[in-house]
Amino acid sequence: MTTAPGQVPVAPQVPRHPLDPEPVRATKARAVFALGLMAAVTGLFVGGIVPAAVALQLSRQARREAYASGGFLTGAAWLRRGERLAWTGLVLAAVTLVTVVVIGVVQLAEAPFGHDYPSTVD
Asked: What is the pTM of this model?
C-alpha cells in the first residue's frame, strides 16, 4: 500500500511476541572495530598484526553468534568496518616488511664482496 506517488510502500508491522528479547548490539562488534582501528593505526610499525589477527578472529565469532541469535544481535556495520580496518592494518604491515626486505637486499648488494685489505698488503 502506498500513500502517494513517489513514497516508499508501507509494510505492515508484524507483532512481536512479548517474550522475545530486545535487539541489542553485539559487544564483540565494538571490540572488533576498536581492534581493527588499532591495527590500522599501528600497521606501518608492524605492531598491527596482533590486533588485526584478534579482530578477524573475533569477527568470525561475532558473525556466528549473530546468526544463531536469529536477528536479536545487531552491529553488522561495526563488524564490517572493523574487518576492513584489520585487513588495512595487515596490508600496511606487509608493505612495511616488504619495503624493509628490499632495502636490506639493496644495501647488501652494494656492500663490497670479500675482504677489503689496505693498499700495503699484497
From this structure: 0.74
